[in-house]
Amino acid sequence: MANYTIKDLEKLSGIKAHTIRIWEKRYGLIEPERTSTNIRTYCDAELKKLLNISILNKNGFKISKIANLTNDEITTNISRLTENLTDTETQIENLAIAMIDLDENKFERILSRTIIQLGFEDTVIKVLNPFFMRIGIMWQTGTINPAQEHFVSNLIRQKMLVAIDSQLSSESPNTKNFLLFLPEGEMHELGLLFASYLIRKRGHRVIYLGQNVPFNDLIEVDKIRSCHYLYLSFIVTLSDEEALNYLERLSKIFPDKSIYITGQNKLRDLCSGFTNIKFIGSPKILISELNYIDSL
User: Fold this and answer.
1) Does 14 fall in a domain?
2) Mind listing the pLDDT tens digit for each residue in 157-188?
3) Where does residue 273 rank: exposed (0-12), middle (13-18), buried (19+ CB within 10 A)?
4) Phi and psi at residue 49, in whole multiples of 5°?
5) Cα–Cα distance between 226 and 257 in angstroms, integer?
6) Which of 44, 50, 150, 209 is the most buried (most CB within 10 A)?
7) What is the pLDDT of residue 86?
8) Domain identity same for 266 and 189
9) Can you give the pLDDT at residue 161?
10) DSSP strand E in 129-196: where?
């Protein structure tokens, strides 16, 4: 069970600490414990209740009314409310609650419904990307443990694979070969899988090598199947020197390739020193690049 400060709750719920204090004092909506120095601390149950209260309040429920609801009644109202909602913030909060509870059925139900409403591409861009930003905050505050992160990552990975498999080959004279991989030490492949989906959807070929790929393997693969573009991601923290050395080696060995890199923001400045390497800061930028390639 995690313990949160009121500032943690503010970051995770989007509700101002001042408002949370008022709700506590006036309505008794959540009941913090206090440290020996009189600092409020909150547990998972309070976080989940606050996220649910936030959803109801954003959708027209007055706090005075919510305060009179039992926990079961709050849950029932949430279920009714979210059946037809397309509000992305609500979906993100619901996914966060399902993750904290390790509730696979709830997570699957919310995600599947969102995909039906928005389509897979918009679900990833508008819901899952912000959701993983929320997970990043949760990591920083100690809100979630590795098991919870692995739990949601594997469920989303399954959806990614199904979406990729559903892409029918629609090659054209402008079809290009993309080599997708994660460098050695890199294991977080959800972003790479989504890039594979976007590229395949637009009719290009993908050679997908996945996680932890040694540099020499890239050279051998390119000998067998020459690629026009390389796409990779750096999530693991590297020093500037390590990252620069890798980029220099990549640019030198593949001077005739266009190389796309996503991941740590510091790579943006490092990539600017190479003519054949471009930093991709978001899926929307990758989509713009793919649209440009299609226009050539």
Assistant:
1) no
2) 999 999 998 887 666 778 999 999 999 988 88
3) exposed
4) -65, -40
5) 10
6) 50
7) 60
8) yes
9) 92
10) 177-183
